[in-house]
Amino acid sequence: GIDPKTGNVMLGEYGPDSNSASATRGPQNTVEWNLISKPGNYGWPYCIGNNSPYIDYNFATKQSGSAFNCAAPVNDSPNNTGLTNLPPVIPATVWYHYASDPNNFPELSGGAPMGGPVYRYNADITATNKWPAYWDGKAIFGEWNNNAMWSFQLNEDATKLVEMNRILQTLSFIKPMDMKFGPDGALYLIEWGSGFNGNNTDSGVYRVDYIKGVRPPVARAAADKTDGPAPLAVKFSSEGSRDPDGKAITYAWDFDADGTVDSTDPNPAHTYTTAGNYNAVLTIKNTDNVTATASVPIVAGNTRPTVTLVPPPDGGFFEFGDQVKYKVVVTDPEDGTIDCDKVQVQAFLGHDSHGHPLDQHNGCEGVIQTLTDSGHGTYDNLYYALAATYTDKGAGAAKPLTGQGSVVLQPKRKQAEHFSQTGRVAGGKGTDTAGVAIETTSDTAGGSSDIGNIQDGDWWSFDPVNLGNINAIRLRAASNASGGTVEIRQGNPETGTLVGTANVPGTGGWQTFQDVTVNLTNPPTTSGPLYFVVRKPASVADNSFLINVNWVDFVGKGVTENQRPTVSVAANATTGVAPLKVDFTTTASDPEGDALTYKWNFGVNGAPQPTTANASYTYTAPGTYTATVTVTDAKGAVGSAQVQVKVNTPATVCLSGRSDDFLGTQLDHDRWSVIRENQDLRVADGSLIIPTSTTDIYQTTNNTPNIVVQPAPAGAWTATAKLTLKAQDAYQQAGLVIYGDDDNYAKMVLQGRSTNGSNHANRVFQFIREDKGAPNEVTASNTAQLGDAYPDTVYVRFVSDGTNITAHYSSDGTNFTAMSETKPLAGISNPKIGLISLAGANHPVVDAAFDWFQITPDDKAGPPAPDDEFNGTTLDTCRWSANVRYDATAARVTGGNLELDTTTGDIYGTTNSGPKNFILQTAPSGDWTLETKVDGSALSEQYQQGGLIVYGDDDNYVKFDFLTTNAAGSTVARTIELRSEVGGTVQNPQPQVNNLTAGPYWLRLKKVGDSFTGAYSSNGTTWTDLTTSGAVAVVKNSAVANASKVGVYTIGTNQGASKTVKFDYFKLVKAGSEDKTAPVTTATTDPAQPDNGSFTGPVTVTLKAVDETGGSGVAKTEYALDSGAWTAYTAPVTVSGDGQHEVTYRSTDKAGNVEATKSLKLTIATPKVKLTVTAATRCIGTTAYLAVTAVNDGDVPATIVLNTAFGNKTVTDVAPGKQAYQSFNTRTAQVAAGKATVTGTATIGGKQVTTSYDAAYAAASCS
Q1: Tens digit of pLDDT for each residue in 875-890?
Q2: How far apart are CA 846 and CA 694, in angstroms?
Q3: What confidence tens digit (pLDDT) does each residue in 507-520 have?
Q4: Is residue 624, in this structure, part of any structural domain at all?
Q5: CA dist 953 to 948, 998, 1067, Å?
Q6: Which of 541, 732, 828, 1257 is the right S-S partner for 740, CB 3.0 to 4.6 Å?
Q7: What is the C-alpha to C-alpha distance for residues 362 and 117, in angstroms, rounded to an integer?
Q8: CATH number for the domain including 455?
Q9: SS3 assignment, position 1047
Q10: 242 and 375, same structural domain?
């Protein structure tokens, strides 16, 4: 609606009509009424109501992301052609749901707002039915579902809602749809009525008058027929016309609206002899001469078409995804043969009392493909509706008329709470309120609500229902004890045809449900209501509650023309660590036997979508995924099935002390000893390689080399190894060994077992305990054959309690399976634990690669060093073992940096909204200083930040960070701040420095007792303390002074788009261990040495700086050339030009220690070919000649080239002391002064050298 005074818009807005909130999609059904006074972003599809965000759902992968940010929504849709960063969402003026919300606008419910106009009183309107000035400034509002009207009082300038009130409560409305105030000041109202697509016989347009004093009469006009062939005899009726005050009324009928009264009878008859379109008007007048009118449109000469859908029948049953055949029968006396191209069939998805238009078809028959995903909740009140229409051709002066027929199709599972009506039959002995009641269910099979409080005689119904092709009805029912009988009747709960009877037993609880099936034999196939009447056993008291019902299934084909395929899906693994390869298997059949096609969606953007029944996919990132297979039959019916896959982060394996990750190139013999070591054992590519030699220690064959062992701990311990072995032949094997000697040991190995050619599938795990040369191998010593798909990379484990040992195996390192036997340690003297690989005699040798070995507890293990340069490709979770809300999708190690994407959320004050990826480690005791280099140049929105943090929890921390403070889209403002929070309260002081560049910046956070200070640098060398009032700012925080965690973090607050912050390194220096020694820089030259004290050409100088072991590390190296300015050293420096040169240099470490300046002096003397060159002109007759002479003054022969404007001369091998000479004929009498150029080339000191000379000559005139 519009406010004619301000132009403001009153708008009813809708959201998804889900009955309940969803953690994966967003809020429950929420609708709005908005007073729109300015352009803006009012939320859809990001936020609804008081800015409740929807979830960013990926329709391609069917995965849910995080909630949208209402303060800064981002449109990253691939279909977006407009803005990406959207304005903040303006909250709704009014919001509500299907059910009343006691906290927000409790007056409203229904979930179907219809915005109406604002009334503006006009004193100049003379109509007596105009609304009075009391209503001025009030907005009219309709609630479509609740059939109610409201007025919304606005403030003086009509920009805010003040209060709301029900109005016109004595009137009956049927879905008020649209409202406007007319020029007469009365309200005009359109009612939708009931039904779909115009099949609403009770819809209408009404005028709502304000009457002061004498009330007008009420006119009602009807006719027994409104169309037909001419002559058309019509009987009119004024039934329902009345005067509300009981005054006498008179009747005046004008059958053709020509202004002439044609009859004063209350119920006259009239024959229309001439074809045409008429409007019969009834005028009612009371004794006060106040009138009212009603009219009936009449079309004479044309008959409205009769439109029928057969099939499907009204109330027939289908399943979503099925195909339903329809046929439309149209009869029209005037048109005769029907043009089927003009028949239109509209499909609707019905939901509660409304419908969503879907596909539209033309023709008298066809097939409707129902939706596979309704887009609504599983337990919503959903159905299908088909509406067929046909508009005839008209007949002469009679206008065309439209006929319509419609049917409702019911889903084969009807949730019981969506009954049509409820009540109690006559003679029912129940004593409570008649009918059933809706309650919440906890049925393990599903459902959100059931019906209960059912006593004898209570019934519920579904309407319409048609049982054609339904052969059974199945109730999902429960009963605490007594049970009950359910009579299923068609048409009437008392006298209707008995379709069947269900006997519900006592199930032991009101929420202990089971299925109760009633088989049907020749059920009636007429359409109408179906009643379920519950009767008690004779022995049960009248006031006893009998049963609960969750849903009702209608079993059979129903109206389905082509049933959807039946689909199930299985996965060989539904949980595991990344990377997780999952093999999916589909079982599908088509009820009609049609051929099937397949399409997979693994729930990962950009992943392949195979079209095979079975498929495989490897999930590389941790997360929860939904894999969906969609199966389509040859006619297009669609079925689908899903399976959820949870991919976990690989377990952290921390290796130090006794454990080993086999890095480097040699085995650590301080940790390990080797039985019969030979050259075949090697360490390479991060693994210990032990070939499966053709040896054994089984029974008395004791010759296996390279058994790698260490003393086993006393007491309880666990040893695990990760190994890779492609075992295809008997008895290739590798794994763990507990070794006393060759005749007394235990082994847990992956072993090949094929004795007849290579067969990868025949592998097993084997656990044996050889005692005094007897291996004691029994059936339980070996697993079943693992199969070809079982991986070659496996995990084996021994668990010892100090007395006995058990063995275990795993394919993923997380989920271990125990071997069935337990073996004693006794008899293995001085046991050693380690690794073994062998193949037995005459079997192929292959490499067994041990990736790591771990033993716990480990008395020699220590924590990793705190410092991290973030080299490599993965975060070291042994060092960073205290992470908070870690999300691998928003964190990565790459390019020598830890990159963290800012995530929505904050921890400032009490606003703790769960930002992710606080990368933390346990802080050491005592005092220390943290340092990092942070690149936050990508940050651009208010309170996006990254930096150092000392963390207790979200309400107790100290953080020192780089952040941006500007609103999104504004000029970026950058700050470094130091903040401390205790118990959710931000502490003072709150020092910061503003107006910074994009960086990067170095940050230091220093702890002394419970005091923290911060310093920053733009170059890693010169540091500036954060201050307040000119002094170093100290923040106190006793909550995190001890037993805290430290590290780096990012926060995105209410960001619109995530940004990446890069951390170059992290360093922790304990107090007393600070770096106080400057780095040392060395300079080298290329060539390495001068020739007789001088370099003969350009010299390359390379500088290399190193800090002491355990030092802070080199921050920068600088150099200056020949007294020039200091320059950052980034690459070798080239020094050129003959003469003396000096390169000075120095380095600075990250602790700020500056090395004393060093100097490198060098001389460059380029060798030359020594020549004496002369040039002179002379006259011979009238011709001028130029004579050029070059004498070789050097020690080696030279090639001399004489170059003039009059020609060139080359003389080779000119010996020392000899000359090259040429007299050049200028061929002219006059020569201007000029110069000749002479080059000499010779090999000097093993290098070819060329030197150039110029020789001037005088002008000559020879005329």
Answers
A1: 999 899 999 999 988 9
A2: 10
A3: 999 999 999 999 99
A4: yes
A5: 15, 30, 22
A6: 828
A7: 38
A8: 2.60.120.260
A9: strand
A10: no
